[in-house]
Design goal:
alpha+beta; Adenine-n6-DNA-methyltransferase TaqI, Chain A, domain 2; three-stranded mixed sheet; globular; 4 helices; 9 strands; four-stranded antiparallel sheet; about 190 residues
Length: about 190
């Protein structure tokens, strides 16, 4: 059901780069949190840039190993580091069905780690050997057709919440310090019911 399974790159970090590297901190709570991505100046092969629909699985270390998320935005020039595995669905497989199937297997991926304590690894072979139910494409597409609008709305609302949080964090200190004066605004406060 997948066309590509690969670990990411060993980056050369530089905050002055357009290319960003997704690390294990970016994958938590089945979300992709790009604010933790770092800049990279190392050359990246085209297939290692993440794409919409890719599934990312943390593949190193206790506590983060096995975390799963699906790329549901199209981040430009983003890759993953060597501690994260990209799993890309085949062209004919419904992205939502594929992504949710792997997200539901997160506890299994957490258990598949091998190696010494603190250096546990989830290798590509273990991921590749994972079996998924493969219903007919009509059922996969039916699932995707129902789930896609909900998942898209979740992404839109998360983005709006992030923007509101950033705006609050920018304005609140200025309001408290008096740098922004609101005394001239006509603000009506509704009376509380007794």
């Amino acid at each position: 059901m997948c066309e590509y399974i690969s670990r990411g790159i060993s980056p050369k970090y530089s905050e002055n780069s357009e290319c960003r590297v997704i690390n294990q901190r970016c994958v938590r709570d089945n979300r992709l949190q790009l604010e933790f991505a770092r800049g990279n100046t190392k050359q990246v092969p085209e297939e290692k840039f993440v794409r919409f629909g890719d599934v990312l699985i943390n593949s190193t270390g206790v506590g983060t190993l096995g975390r799963v998320t699906q790329v549901y935005r199209s981040p430009e020039k983003h890759t993953v580091d060597s501690h994260v595995t990209i799993v890309r669905p085949l062209a004919g497989v419904d992205r939502d069905y594929f992504g949710w199937s792997l997200i539901q297997l997160q506890p299994d991926f957490e258990r598949l780690g091998t190696g010494a304590t603190g250096q546990t690894e989830l290798n590509r072979t273990s991921i590749a050997k994972t079996e998924l139910m493969s219903p007919p494409l009509s059922i996969q597409n039916g699932f995707g057709g129902k789930v896609y609008p909900m998942r898209s709305l979740v992404e839109i609302l998360r983005s709006k919440n992030d923007n509101l949080r950033q705006t609050r964090d920018l304005l609140l200190p200025k309001l408290i310090s008096g740098e922004v004066d609101v005394s001239e605004l006509d603000i009506t406060i509704p009376e509380a019911n007794a």
